[in-house]
Specification:
The complex is a heterotrimer of chains A (84), B (239) and C (196).
Chain A: E1 4-5, H1 10-14, E2 25-28, E3 34-36, E4 41-45, E5 48-52, E6 59-65, E7 70-73, E8 77-81
Antiparallel strand pairs in A: 1-4, 2-3, 2-8, 4-5, 5-6, 6-7
Chain B: E1 5-17, E2 20-26, E3 38-44, E4 50-56, E5 65-71, H1 79-85, E6 91-98, E7 112-117, H2 121-133, E8 140-146, H3 155-161, E9 166-172, H4 189-195, E10 204-209, H5 211-223, E11 231-235
Parallel strand pairs in B: 7-8, 7-10, 8-9, 10-11
Antiparallel strand pairs in B: 1-2, 1-6, 2-5, 3-4, 3-6
Chain C: E1 24-25, E2 46-51, E3 54-59, H1 60-64, E4 69-76, E5 81-92, H2 93-97, E6 106-111, E7 116-120, E8 130-135, E9 138-139, E10 149-151, E11 164-170
Classes of the chains: A mainly beta (84), B alpha/beta (239), C mainly beta (196).
Chain lengths: 84, 239, 196
Amino acid sequence: MQPIDGNALAGPLSELFRFDLTETTGECRHCGDTTVLARALVYPDPSGYVVRCSACGDVLLAIVSTEKRTWLDLSGIAGLQIPQ
Amino acid sequence: MVGSWHVGTVVATNTETPTGRSIVFDVPGWTGNLAGQHVDVRLSAPDGYQAVRSYSIASADASERVQLAVDKLPDGEVSPYLVDDLQVGDQVEFRGPLGGWFVWRPTDVGPVQLIAGGSGAVPLVAMARAHAAAQSNEDFRMLYSVREAADAFFASELQSLANEHFALDWIYTRKAPEGAARPAGRITADDLARLALPATSNPLVFVCGPTGFVETVASQLVELGHDPQRVKTERFGGK
Amino acid sequence: MAIISRGFAGRSREHNPELPPGQYLTEDFPVLSAGPTPELDTAEWTFTVQTENGPTKWNWDELHDLGVEDVHTDIHCVTRWSKLGTSWRGIPLDAIFDKVETERDFVMQYSYGGYTTNLPLEDLLDGKAWVVSEFEGEPLDPEHGGPARLLVPHLYFWKSAKWIRGLIMQDNDEPGFWEQNGYNMYGDPWQEQRYW
């Protein structure tokens, strides 16, 4: 399965954040690469979205949506810069 | 607005290619979108089953009308319905507009290179339309790769936009038209060197299409000297 | 309240009373993954079981020499798709654990590419699991986890790790990749154990 770009997550993330998370810049906790999340690689496994650093391939974030709640794991991101 | 679902009603459909259709929806409450943005479309079946897919928006204005252009995937679940079954009066749900990164605003400064693979042309057509509507003086070039001429979305409209600030070139990968200067074949670095704005102009480059196409073109652009930070991609997945 | 789109039915799906609750039947075999497909050569491929006594490692031929059998079974994906009557060929985990000494009761499967998933050891034994390298009579496609993956059909299919590289014996049931992200630690489709 080929990945798609992070900007494809704008929809699912719009339910969680009041701003467009794909326009934010994130630092990969694994390799330190800093890039706008729209450039990250998204693997849309049916179990959930897995977003990977386009430089090192490590997981930046994972999103699992169920009827009762959405699980959001941001532990692969060391910091987020959110434009004003 | 963003985050909630809006109902859209089909007001017009048009066959664009042997497998593709453009569809205009009336979406009350829609306040418009930027060129390059997409929507999530949700379909619900009577038994509660739902399917959601993302589609780029072909229109880029502030009206309540939204135009999509959909290519039917052979084993698709949603695209065959949108291309073959959807009729005027039918309804779907939209979430959006989405995506603030892969966009071109008429206030953006500098030349722009658009590179489209197949149905990846849709968000780039929105950009070409926005450029024309704003009567922008920024240099726009578009390179559109299709299997053959009949597979191009909005071909005649794009041709009509050509002027001193908008240039359009075609790449035919399977069958070139009679008398075409370039024989059929996949896009190469040579094509980009010949037909795209050079790296020295420092253009903002938008590449959209299937993942394989986008990755090939993006790496060719970097090899030609384009700054990777000036190349924005939208991969559709698939091959 | 979502509106209905006239005439939309979605992918062909049947509600079959023989299926676990909430599942639909499919003829397809969707290919989706949490990461890129690793490129693996069976000449370099190894399978390792790591215990408190050290590792035991097999190469491709050595593992297959433990004995390969046919498996005919149903698989259930947590995303509600079930596929009945799938055919595989592989090495039963019973044959592998015949060669391994451990007191530990829990296992972490780990894959080439970094995927992990956890389960109790007893769910791999007594004819319940295989390392499979063939699907429907052909070598297992890399997109489906080839050259070899785990097959644990009595649990949701995320518990059958693709591109299997080995197993680590654990004292406790530690969560793997999806289990850390809200998925059930056990995953019994018949009890609909999808999430926490």
